[in-house]
Amino acid sequence: MIVFELDGRPVEVDDDGVSLLDALREELGVHAVKDGCSPQGQCGCCTVIVDGAARVSCVTPVRRVAGRSVVTTEGLDPALRDRWTDAFVAAGASQCGFCTPGILLRLASLGERRPGATDDEVRTALLAHLCRCTGWQTVVEAARSALATPAAGEPPAPSATRDPLLASWRAQVEGPAFQAVGPEVVRGGGGFADDTAPVGSLVAMPRAATGPGGDRRDDLDDLVVAATLPAARAASGRVQGRNSTAPLRHPLELPGGEWALTLRTTWVEPAYLEPDASWCLPGGRPAPPLANGGAFGGKRRSPVPATARALADRHGRPVRVLWSREDVTRRGPKRPPIAAGLRADGTGVLRVARTPGSGSLDGLAERVAGAAPGVSVEEVTVPGPPVALDLRGAGWAEAAVLQAALGALAGGQRGPGTPVEIEGRQGGRARAAVGADGSVTVEVWAGSVLDAVTLRSYCIGAAHQALGWVWQEGVAVDDAGVVQDLTIRSFGVLSARDTPRMEVTVHHQDTWPVNGSDAVFAAVAAAAWLADDLAPEWPTRRRGRGAP
């Protein structure tokens, strides 16, 4: 047996070679510690504090903590935990909340060792983490607040007064999906599917990809079912994910013609942190894979709930269905690549990649026409991972960016600082500019604000995602259409250190609340593209991974 101290109490687990993460979640029931990429050790969601230092638990064998102290968010000193939680809530530094407990623990550990840690030191510490929702700036702002330790005897500054109902309403308008906001979410209590599965559930996982194309069937026989998660992993034949050195590809050729403006994009991974998961009782209703956020549309058609129901009925027992990070990358939908050409009068052609096994792209032409009415749409079938229009503004955002850039050209404007204004599909409006240093300024009009902290946080997150999309995000796919980049770090998501300063101004309107962050997403993408002199292929700054 391995004996160690967990959150101030002695515990013991079998010495069967499992990771500290599996021991905490599977044997000890500590679900504040999250599994976002295990065992890649790259997302930071499973971070705990071991003898005062932050450590990623998915790559730490449990035997290495024998006789040592392990602390999760449940075991932090209450005053310290409250200080950091209040700071995160006040700054809007947590959205879905899946990555937040690990980030909080690392920053709290940093604060104990370096009470006067600078913003640069905070951003360096955050290099061990990936957050897709918040855009990092609000996290740094929360750290700045929490690290401002009050003088002796002085009570800590209270967090901003926020109405959780209005905050949740705004989050759902921006999501769009149910999302709670508050201290429990910051500490890991977002109600994620795999945190709520009944004890003793069977565990099902897809078999590892086989064959030269890496394809697998999506029926029940494509999964292994075992009594425990480690046993399911072993039976699946899973191979550790990798970051390839393969170049990014732009799968579509430009349409023929004389164009004033062209753009080609590549495969882009939504990179949500919580892998697809569900569980179900026999004859019951499966747990949804979307518990506290929308995953940018990436889980809208996830097959895991139906799979959980079918397996529970087959086995007569509760079943958990879990996708690993590699499964999400291979099987989850990507943003469809495009190749577009526009004439000076706004007419043109937008080609979009459709892959075998993808869902319908019906409605794409309507979306494009809403932003660029003179642009026709051509679907081109190519080998590759599944694509979907469910992902944030897919089709519409590309058309809106092209139209905005064409308008700037017509006005004789391009380069850093060029302002862009775009109206979203729901009526929200955003104005953005990207400076020569990458700094972003945004103004947003989204009806009644409801909760300014939440709206600002979503706008910063949208700007962060837009910069990544233009500058460096992409997934390598080989000639057969098989995804080569399987680690979460290989997708090109901007790190905390590489994310520039963002200034967001929220304008109140006496109208019904509407989505504003999608307009910010498109406006910042257009401004970033103009700042990069309208380079004809995205990503524009992916070092060493450009197209051949």
Brief summary:
With 548 residues, this protein is α+β, with helices and mostly antiparallel strands. Helices cover 28% and strands 15% of the residues.
Q: What structural category arises from helix and sheet content?
A: alpha+beta
Q: Remind me, CATH topology of the domain at 338-531?
A: Aldehyde Oxidoreductase, domain 4
CA-CA gap between termini? 53 Å
CATH class of the domain at 338-531: Alpha Beta
- The poorly predicted ranges are 151-158
Q: From the coordinates shown, what is the CATH architecture of the domain at 338-531?
A: 2-Layer Sandwich
Secondary structure: helix percent? 25-40%
Q: How would you sum up this structure, described in words?
A:
- With 548 residues, this protein is α+β, with helices and mostly antiparallel strands.
- Among the domains are: 2-71, Ubiquitin-like (UB roll); 78-191, DNA polymerase, domain 1 (Orthogonal Bundle), CATH 1.10.150.120; 338-531, Aldehyde Oxidoreductase, domain 4 (2-Layer Sandwich), CATH 3.30.365.
- It contains 14 helices and 17 strands.
- The protein has helices spanning 20-27, 78-91, 100-113, 119-125, 137-147, 164-174, 183-186, 229-236, 304-315, 325-331, 364-371, 396-410, 452-471, 517-531, and strands at residues 2-6, 9-13, 47-50, 53-56, 69-71, 202-206, 223-226, 261-264, 277-280, 319-322, 338-342, 348-354, 375-381, 420-423, 429-434, 440-445, 502-507.
- It has a 5-stranded mixed beta sheet, with helices on both faces.
- The N and C termini lie far apart (53 Å).
- The model is unreliable at 151-158 (pLDDT under 50).
